[in-house]
């Protein structure tokens, strides 16, 4: 699967957009549709959570960690569901 390349600036814009981050959270939890970025996040985030994502680039790993950290801080209820599902 080709990785959708994303700049750090694009990531910050996504994290600042409550609707977009909610869509990605719903995608990750299997509660809503996924776009290519959401699919990649849903596929790779569990590997990053476990500490090993061999197919991730260093930039992807950093961006996924940033996204997970953001969700943990700003969406604790959804974060708990993500941990139950993937942890």
Description:
- The protein has helices spanning 8-16, 18-28, 36-49, 58-74, 76-86.
- It is an all-alpha fold.
- Helix 3 (36-49) crosses helix 4 (58-74).
- It is globular, with a radius of gyration of 12 Å.
In short:
The protein is mainly alpha-helical and 87 residues long. It has helices at residues 8-16, 18-28, 36-49, 58-74, 76-86. It holds the Pfam family OS-D.
Which SSEs are present, and which pair or pack?
Blueprint: H1 8-16, H2 18-28, H3 36-49, H4 58-74, H5 76-86
Low-confidence stretches: none
Count of DSSP H/I helices: 5
> Largest sheet, if any?
none
Q: Measured on Cα atoms, how large is the radius of gyration?
A: 12 Å
In one word, what is the shape? Answer: globular
Structural class: mainly alpha
The N- and C-terminal alpha carbons lie at a distance of: 23 Å
Number of DSSP E strands: 0
Percentage of residues in helical conformation: over 70%
Assembly context of the chains: single chain
Average pLDDT for all residues: 89
Keywords, separated by commas or semicolons:
mainly alpha; 5 helices; 71% helix; 87 residues; A10/PebIII; Chemosensory protein; OS_D_A10/PebIII_sf
